[in-house]
Amino acid sequence: MGSRGPIMRVESSSARRRARVGIWAFVVLAATAPVGSRAEIVDRIVATIDGEPVTLVELDAFSEQVRRRGGPEASLDQRALLDELVLEKIIKKKIESLGVAATEQQVDGYIESIRTRNNLTEAQLRAALEQQGMTWEQYRTQVRTDIERANLINREIRSKVNVSPEEIDRYYKAHPEEFGGGPSRLRVRLISRTVPDDASPEVRAAARAEAERIQKAAADGENFAELAKAHSQGPAAAEGGDLGEIAPGQMQEEFARALAGLDPGDVSQVVETRSGYHVLKVEGRASKSDKPSPEVAEAIREKLYRETMEERYERWLKQDLRAQYHVEILL
User: Fold this and answer.
1) Which residues pair with 49 in a beta bridge?
2) Does the model's pTM come out above 0.70?
3) CATH architecture for the domain at 183-287
4) 36-57 burial by CB neighbour count: b if 16+ within 10 A, else e?
5) Where are the domains of the chain?
6) 100-156 CATH fold
7) Mind listing the pLDDT tens digit for each residue in 200-225?
């Protein structure tokens, strides 16, 4: 009688048919050992992907690979590792279905580019891999996986991500200081109640009380410019206390601290300085530019593109891609 192939192999089409009919069945792989040893390996199905089995033997092999590779996945429990294995198999199925598998020429070209960038001969590269405990074939397999995943991402995600000029403008206006175009100057009005250096405590207390009364009136909505004209003893009183546009770094330290965090229309608390008591109002902010320069716009576009890619990739990988396949976890 002619030789026959293994009849209990899990990956065979007959095993797949048995898995669909009896998904909870155990698959027994009997070793061809002497009768006395009774050696046998018991395998079982721990998950299915569109009816195709994922076995415990595969999971154990995957766990060993993860353990050797190290990294955060090495601490995952068996169920979490099974989820990772299922995801890897789904990715492989998607790569095959889309026809974006890496060719031998792509693998060779990628390795050649690695050698060139690192100024290594093939012998030196092989020696470096051997020091890391990786064979040449294992390295080629890793390169192939990297290329195929990049092909898949380009096909499914990268080509669908776009950052519009409107998004760039919105981000610039919300975070201009990140790109050197921040709100660098403030338009400020000032009301001051001054006191001489040798003023008595009673005189200083009366000046503070008057400044607090003015501050309350301004905070309650009274016209700040009119209050300044009527009560300010400081600069530009006749112009309603309008100091024009001024950078925080050009102000007295006490004023800069009082204005920090205030929005246009806000009135500060009473500010005490050696010269007296003061109330400030932010009339507006002046940006260096309403629109980002081309260099800044490109930096913003790259930032938004990268963030959008990361967000889309995570959602696609964990939700969208997996939803395309019927997965049953039996562990």
Assistant:
1) 52, 327
2) no
3) Roll (3.10)
4) eeeeeeebbbbbbbeebbbbbb
5) 1-98, 100-156, 163-177+289-326, 183-287
6) Triger factor/SurA peptide-binding fold (1.10.4030)
7) 999 999 999 999 999 999 999 999 99
